[in-house]
Amino acid sequence: MAIRARGRENAQYKAKERDEFFRRLDRGGTIRAVAAELGLSVESCYRWRNEAGVSTPRVKSRVYTTEDKAEFFRLLALTGNVSKVAKELGFVRVTCYKWAHQAGIFTGKDTRAQRAQFERLRADGVSRADAARQVGVDKRSAQDWDKGIKQIPGGRVYPDGRVVRYRQAAILANVKNPREAYTRGAPVDLARLETVVDSRYLSLIERERIHDLRSRGDSMRAIGRALGRSASTISREIARNTATTVGYLPYAAHRIAASRRPRCHARKLEPVSNLRAYVEGKLRKRWSPEQISHRLVKDFPNDQGMRVSTETIYQAIYVQGRGALKREIATAMRRGRTTRKPRRDPAKRTSRFVDPMVSITERPADAADRAVPGHWEGDLIVGTMGRSAIGTLVERSSRFVALVHLKHDHTAETVRDGLIATVAELPAALRRSLTWDQGAEMSGHVGFQVSTDMAVYFCDPGSPWQRGSNENTNGLLRQYFPKGTDLSRHTPAELQRVAEDLNERPRKTLNWDTPAERLHALLNAS
Prior knowledge:
about 525 residues, alpha/beta, five-stranded mixed sheet, three-stranded antiparallel sheet, 26 helices, elongated, RNaseH-like_sf, transposase activity
């Protein structure tokens, strides 16, 4: 007879013991082994696992002896309950039922009496759910009885005489190796699990950090700041990869993510399909992939087959073997490219300036929260062929705009001198700091700092939202300075008029004050 793992039977375990059980189980231990290590009841551990919905890897099947089987039948003759005997002996319940069936012992339920009682209750006006609950059957059986459906081996018989046979081959093919393919938290090769695929994807170490910070009570934003990820990434990670009711488990989450990586689907944009014809037609009209993807929902609201994501269209255009939209269609893209522009990993980029940069993360708090005037965001808007440009400055607290005249070019020296001349006209209270992107035009930032006594902070690569006010203002300025035009023809007086025009517009973000009014109020208050 098998020896059951020792534990405190029917004990009221503490929450920390339950948490420690799940922590060890998450690292790949078996339920019985973890229960033995912690001195817990095996039954309690299995119950916790089932309640939490945790999926554990399969272990090697247990081999039963002839004596085990004889002991099972001896106790079964005394109790008549297969489940009770299996639990008492610590045997697998499914194996015990198989032995009973092979021995010709009937272990099922005679549902004829239950069905008759169910039909009487329904005739008396009892709802289906209440009748099923009183009789003790599941919702699916009650639904079948209500419809007059009779279950037969391998199929069903409907009241109109139709016989529906289950597709046995397809069913068996789907359940042959379920844990290798679809089960949440399925076993995954360890080397694959721990491999850092790409910096875009969360690693196992990051998931462990998320678990620790989440257990400490940190918010999504706080966790995101600690990991250098956006709060939405953390929120999405916890929502998608929390497969249990006990909360987020890092190893289980990483197994789920790893098992989700290989996704083999039929190609959306097949050579002959209505969807492909629609996409090709709109690309020829110079629609962007994003416009096409969203317009499909409006044009075909009830046809789920007419759906394709923005990225799938890009893949079909740029990636060989992913649909291969025609080369002449690719040239109709707004940028006119037939190949995708590669993007380097930010972590592998080398500094583009000789003089060291000061990161935006070191910017003082009074600049970050817009509490004190004098902190500016800056950038360039560029004209036709990238030959001409205008410098744009936006004060963070008031959204006050100042434009920098760059007469001939936008080299580092020209931009530096133009910024110095513009900033020199500001009062000292408005010369605190300047935040810029990592454009080469700002490589003379040290000379600017020495001349103006203003600190310069640089945004992270590819992070325009860190200068959100400036980016928004650049969009407004394109009303006056359209793309593809020569910006060098505009005089300093014209730039001044445009800046005054923007500074006298009421802004929703300023509670409908104008930037000029808000800046004046801030200066008077200080």
